């Protein structure tokens, strides 16, 4: 009778809550397919420009000014998309906003695939840019709001990982597919995304903001599992939202202006590292540095390094912390930018339009490449380290921190503002990059990006908070009180 209960035996044993993340992972995967297409469309000019320059259709061949517009107009569309996300996030919800991004993406890719002149290429790039801006302003917010704190760091890096994977897919397909079929291939992830999202839940936080408590509970139960402690999480979210009523005068309080300023400056500095023009003009850059290996293979190698580094960052996000990875990222980019500056300054590139236009034709039209010179591997290795450093920190963590620290009451509007600032900056840099190279040489922009990397390190040390292992409500409490992250159950 040793197993018989007595008066000291607990009648009800409290079992630890069991979280099932399978459905959460499915919801995140469905959403971040939009980032895959974003990464695919962003670097579209890299393999396409050389193919157009060696093509037989003079209507599609471009001079340096047209190349600058073809590369940069995507970012102008992304800025418009960011503003659209600012409105749509709070009007129709994060999930519907992501689904709406599929419309300009699909149309833009079709227009580019059927392009008969330069203007059709521009319109297609602009429309895919709008889609990219919408996804950049809505997907990180959606992923952050549906994620459990224990996995939010890893899942928060998924938008960046899938964007990187999309870029790598573009580089890989560019090795074997004509440029028109590249545009057709980009349609596939968009269609899959829109189908999958039809069956995914809306963000619980968005439901609570709209007063739909029952739907919010149902979404949380679906995401966490019926045996999880989802009701406690629901109560925390509801308390946090009920304490917020955003008015213009509230922007003067630290709860709002500090995280908004940090997010805006981080997105600005993220683009000032030069990552967008480097990725967009990757193959032309390799042509200008006269690397012995064929530039299209160099671009694919850099894309693979970028994917590996983002995967490493995702695994370390909730272990090493956000700030440690940002410091590492900034230091690696500084060293690589400095190496690239010294190499391109010591070894001048060809100047003028020959570098970008006639130079591409001659390179692709020739039967044999230059003799192998180990020294020419320096720009390839430097580019790999630049991409590796960026993807370790300033790529994924900037997106993650934006979605973590922005106050919930202003998250939709503020995230759209951040995306708008980011892509306007990217447009200016991408538009000017080729002109600066043509006027001063390739070392000039890389010297500028080297200085920006130092600024990024200083900004990380002085202004960026550590959010590892904290709930969104605890992070808001920190900005509200200025004290250590604490939030008590009641």
From TrEMBL:
TM region(s), chain numbering: 24-47, 67-89, 96-115, 121-142, 154-173, 179-200, 324-343, 377-401, 413-434, 440-461
GO molecular function, one term: transmembrane transporter activity
An individual GO BP term: regulation of glycolytic process
UniProt keyword terms in alphabetical order: Glycoprotein, Lysosome, Membrane, Sugar transport, Transmembrane, Transmembrane helix, Transport
Positions of the Major facilitator superfamily (MFS) profile domain: 27-468
Membrane topology note: Multi-pass membrane protein
Protein localization: Lysosome membrane
Primary location group: membrane
GO cellular component: lysosomal membrane
Domain of life from the UniProt record: Eukaryota
PANTHER family reported in the protein's UniProt record: PTHR48021, SOLUTE CARRIER FAMILY 2, FACILITATED GLUCOSE TRANSPORTER MEMBER 6
Role noted for this protein: Probable sugar transporter that acts as a regulator of glycolysis in macrophages. Does not transport glucose.
Protein name in UniProt: Solute carrier family 2, facilitated glucose transporter member 6
Organism: Sinocyclocheilus rhinocerous
């Amino acid at each position: 009778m040793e197993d018989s209960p007595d008066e000291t035996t607990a009648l009800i044993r409290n079992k630890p809550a069991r979280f099932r993340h399978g459905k959460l992972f499915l919801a995140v995967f469905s959403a971040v397919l939009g980032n895959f297409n974003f990464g695919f469309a962003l670097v579209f000019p890299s393999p396409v420009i050389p193919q157009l320059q060696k093509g037989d259709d003079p209507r599609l061949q471009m001079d340096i000014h047209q190349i600058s517009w073809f590369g940069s107009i995507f970012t102008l569309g992304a800025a418009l998309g960011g503003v659209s996300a600012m409105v749509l996030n709070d009007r129709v919800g994060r999930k519907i906003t992501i689904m709406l991004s599929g419309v300009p993406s699909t149309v833009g890719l079709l227009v580019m695939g059927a392009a008969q002149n330069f203007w059709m290429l521009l319109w297609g790039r602009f429309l895919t840019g709008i889609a990219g801006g919408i996804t950049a302003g809505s997907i990180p917010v959606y992923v952050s709001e549906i994620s459990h704190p224990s996995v939010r760091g890893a899942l928060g890096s998924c938008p960046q990982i899938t964007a990187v994977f999309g870029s790598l897919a573009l580089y890989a397909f560019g090795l074997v597919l004509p440029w028109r079929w590249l545009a057709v291939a980009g349609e596939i992830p968009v269609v899959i995304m829109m189908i999958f999202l039809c069956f995914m839940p809306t963000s619980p936080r968005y439901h609570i903001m709209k007063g739909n408590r029952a739907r919010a509970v149902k979404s949380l139960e679906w995401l966490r599992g019926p045996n999880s402690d989802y009701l406690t999480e629901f109560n925390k979210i509801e308390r946090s939202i009920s304490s917020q009523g955003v008015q213009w005068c509230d922007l003067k309080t630290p709860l709002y202006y500090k995280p908004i300023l940090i997010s805006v400056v981080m997105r600005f500095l993220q683009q000032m590292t030069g990552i967008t023009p480097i990725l967009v003009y990757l193959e032309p850059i390799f042509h200008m540095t006269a690397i012995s290996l064929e530039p299209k293979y160099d671009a694919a190698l850099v894309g693979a390094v970028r994917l590996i580094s983002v995967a490493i960052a995702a695994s370390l996000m909730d272990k090493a912390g956000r700030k440690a990875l940002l410091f590492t990222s900034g230091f690696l980019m500084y060293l690589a930018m400095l190496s690239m500056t010294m190499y391109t300054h010591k070894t001048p590139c060809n100047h003028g339009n020959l570098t970008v236009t006639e130079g591409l034709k001659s390179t692709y039209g020739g039967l044999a490449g230059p003799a192998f010179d180990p020294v020419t591997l320096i720009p390839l290795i430097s580019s790999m380290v630049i991409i590796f450093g960026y993807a370790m920190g300033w790529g994924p963590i900037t997106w993650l921190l934006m979605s973590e620290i922005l106050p919930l009451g202003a998250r939709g509007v503020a995230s759209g503002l951040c995306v708008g600032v980011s892509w306007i900056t990217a447009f200016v840099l991408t538009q000017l990059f080729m002109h600066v190279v043509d006027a001063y040489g390739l070392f000039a922009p890389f010297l500028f990006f080297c200085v920006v990397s130092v600024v990024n390190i200083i900004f990380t040390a002085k202004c960026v908070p550590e959010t590892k292992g904290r709930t969104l409500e605890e992070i808001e409490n920190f900005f509200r009180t200025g004290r250590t992250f604490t939030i008590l159950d009641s």
